[in-house]
Amino acid sequence: MGQVDGFMKYQREMAKSRDPKTRLKDYKEVYTPMDKEQLHNQAARCMDCGVPFCHNGCPLGNNIPDFNDAVYNGKWEEAIRILSSTNNFPEFTGRICPAPCEASCVLSINNKPVTIEYIEKTIAETAFEKGYIKPNPPKSRSGKRVAVVGSGPAGLAAAAQLNKAGHWVTVFERSDRIGGLLRYGIPDFKLEKTVVDRRVRLMEQEGIVFKTNAHVGVNVSALQLKSEFDAIVLCGGASAPRDLPIPGRNFKGVHFAMEFLSQNNKRVAGDKILSGEILAKDKNVLVIGGGDTGSDCVGTSNRHGAKSVTQIELLGKPPLNRNENNPWPLWPMVLMTSSSHEEGVERQWSLLTKEFLSDNNGRLTGLKIVEIKWGMNPQGKMGFEEVPGTERVLPCELALLAIGFVGAEKGGMVDELKIELDERGNIKSDNYHTTQEGIFAAGDIRRGQSLVVWAISEGREAARAVDTWLMGQSALEAKDESFVHLTQEA
Ligand SMILES: Cc1cc2nc3c(=O)[nH]c(=O)nc-3n(C[C@H](O)[C@H](O)[C@H](O)COP(=O)(O)OP(=O)(O)OC[C@H]3O[C@@H](n4cnc5c(N)ncnc54)[C@H](O)[C@@H]3O)c2cc1C
Ligand code: SF4
Q1: How far apart are CA 490 and CA 264, in angstroms?
Q2: What atom in ligand 2 is closest to the CA of residue 7?
Q3: Contact criterion met (CB below 8 Å) for 434 and 234
Q4: Is ligand 1 within 6 A of the CB of residue 291?
Q5: Spacing, Cα 314 to ligand 1 middle (Å)
Q6: pTM above 0.90, yes or no
């Protein structure tokens, strides 16, 4: 443990964000680096708890007190060694993880938690700067070939671990660039794509082959992959979006959030959008859905130069502080305000969408909504009822549907390989093994839309299951399952 009284001496400090007036003019990351002395003081706040709840809260089981101590002592090489033993991509999670570790940090019982996520990002960036992260191909090869389908964080983690175990790995990605939602979902102002490119280059140097524009089940036969590879790991994500089938859904100007976000990431990458451009400039934008995808739409719309941005949500406004039935170390069900919200948005809760409205040319002009009241119904279940006389129209020329995802995409490779789905529409599996011999699954395609940190965890665990299936045993690191997950997934 670094400093015994660090948690009393220093207050939690966050990385500084760039001025909204400046950052709205570009897509560069919002947060700026913290200086090393400041970071040293933040690491000093860690109490090296006997039972480190932070470690329990992290889906990867990161050894947080140990790397905090290494950072406090300026031992950066030691810090990245500890961090990389559980997390293949700390440069991603250090930027975009909602940090369930911080929610469960013991300090947050009566104080503010240790700045774990930022410490993680700085360890990763310092390690790249100092050359501690370099290509590390396996010393020997097993001769086995594994195909990974999908190059999001789950596919990348599975590929990295399987390659480390000595197997020849090929990643098949239907998009034109590698990265999954890291590339074509999460905006650049949260994660600049040079960070993804840097990691992919490193993985190529370690011997992993990436094939883009390779849509398995469409222009690449899934059955052929089955015959050519010793095992397959399906990491295709859960990209089927939830729709809003109300009258007027087909008016011009109503889009899924992902159409808007992925198109924008392509534009930021320098691609020309040849048809169907979705722009928020000078429009009243209505973001439907109060979650993180919605928040990314808010930040992107403001960067486009929207006239106004409103985000609406069916659920009620969360409390500012934890309720009695939501104590530490559970994930806090409180109002979250992202950097995108700080840049300008009107947020409204407890609204039911009724009908999209249009002009004579079928162009969206507004959304009819009604206020609702949440409460227990006579059967003791949570429900809502409309508040009479509260129907009104929210004017908008662009509406973005950010109301979640409904599981793995149907058809294509799932049908070709005769993979069974569970009742939630995700791929059914037993220890990552699907219902088909030699075919495994990891990430959102298996657990439903989740988080990058969970996708990495799933990719690592699936790789271990594949390695064991191929070789009878595995030397890949096992996740520390000795703890009970007392915290709730974010
Ligand atoms: C807008 C948005 C913002 C988000 N922000 C955050 C955040 O800030 N922090 C966070 O922790 N999580 C965030 N998430 C969630 C997170 O991105 C996902 O949980 C995570 O990316 C899932 O990883 P994955 O590898 O399972 O799937 P994905 O990242 O979805 O990758 C799947 C890949 O598989 C490819 N693919 C699919 N089918 C095929 C096929 N048949 N052949 C070849 N390739 C195929 C897809 O093109 C895609 O590239 C966000 C999600 C969205 C939608
Ligand atoms: S719970 Fe917080 S204070 Fe305790 S070891 Fe983890 S980071 Fe340090």
Answers
A1: 26
A2: 3
A3: yes
A4: no
A5: 24
A6: yes
